[in-house]
Known about the structure:
Among the domains are: 8-53; 112-265, Rod shape-determining protein MreC, domain 1 (Thrombin, subunit H), CATH 2.40.10.340.
Amino acid sequence: MSRQTGSGRQSRPMRTLGYGIFVACGLGLVLIQSAPSIDRWFNPARTAASDQLASGDGVGWLPRITGQTVRNDRIKELEAEIRDLERWRAAAISMAERMEAYETILNLQGEPPVRGVTARIVAESDGPFSQTLLANAGQVHGVEPGFVAVNEGGLVGRVIQLGARSSRVLEVTDFNSRVPIMGEQSGVRAIMYGGRNGRGALEDLPEEDQFIDGERLLTSGEGGAFPRGIMAGFAAARGEDWQVDFAMKRGRVGYVRLIPERAIPRPEDDPAEALVADSNILSEAGAGTRRAGQ
């Protein structure tokens, strides 16, 4: 016990001496750096160390360790995107105002307002077709056979069977589906149907013209089954064949919008003679009313 006490007393002066030497060295460094002749030798090293530990441009050691560099870079990217979006927003507003003015000047007949029903859908595994969906909207909700189903991605399918409160939608991914499409840039027209590899296939392709790889494919409206201009997919070149990446897969298929066909009536279905006869009847009725008033 006495030996341990003696050794502890002997080591205590050594620690005190070490602390004193450390403090003396620190004071010596401070005094040396304060000397004008020596300070000019320490300034470059001190400046380089401070720049590396806490750099203002985000490339120092301390920002890299704490992750501040990544956050600063991300903030700069978001600020650049916001500036670009502001420019696009201003351009879009200007274009919309210009289009509205042009339509007024030209007395352009736009598309009629589209009525439709939003319905929830589920996949059907034992239906008459391999790729069909069941929607919880039917005749009592205003749905009719031939209504087109779309989601935020694009064309989903078409109503082929109708019930009182439900309807069956044949997807564009089914082999029995046939959708007339056209290239948005090339203008090439073809018929799209469901393929076997998760992509759409094309038939009735022209021999002279070709699609542009990656261009958007829209419904052409031919045949009146589908409205013109609905997003159907993207053209994809696979060797010598052309396939379609369906646009509906880029949107959620939990809900769809069921809209009518919006087909333009033929002249024989809406003859001009009936309109002329109606106008004559109205004119005669107006003349009779004026005579009776006199």
